[in-house]
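Dear colleagues,

As part of the handover before I leave the project, I'm documenting each prediction I ran so the next person doesn't have to rerun anything. This entry is a single chain, and its sequence is reproduced below.
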Amino acid sequence: WTLDAEGTMTISGTGAMKDYYTNDSPATQKKENVKKVVIEDDVTSIGNYAFDSCSNLASIEIPEGVTNIGVFAFYNCGGLTSIEIPEAVKSIGKGAFAECGGLTSLEIPSGVTSIGDHTFYGCSSLTSIEIPSNVTSIGDYAFQSCTGLTSINISEGVTSIGNGAFSDCSSLTDITIPSSVTSIGAFAFQDCTGLTSITIPKSVT
């Protein structure tokens, strides 16, 4: 991990990035100065808490070979407005983009099979998101407090929606839940004050 005078941190090496804890990664230790991140081609995963609270981080280049984004990897990176996740990514960890309040656009790769707990919690600038067809579960509080979210496309294949998954999504006006869903968790749509229409299929038990 090297940081230049302009605030660009370059991460080189081969294979999986090491996992870290809160305030423990090389990026987080210099979080005030990190403005851009370049991950080189031979890195295959982004570790836990890798960029935790790097609030001045405005852009990141993730190589095509990355298959996993760790838990809370980009937690509280409020300066990020967009991020391109490679198609090879199969797993996005719990809270990976939580509290990324500046994030306005993000496309979840088609190979992702589940949206973890708190993954997009507090992403208040996200206005719409599409859940890929391979996703089978939406975790607890996955989109809680995404107050700018006006629409969401839940594709056929999702079987469960977790506790508080869309709670406090006050701009959400309507939602159709696909017939593949069999369970909706407690408080899933609590305080969705803009919600005027919701379709719940007979498959929900």
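DSSP finds one helix and 18 strands in the chain. The CA atoms of residues 19 and 47 lie 4 Å apart.

All the best with the project,
I.
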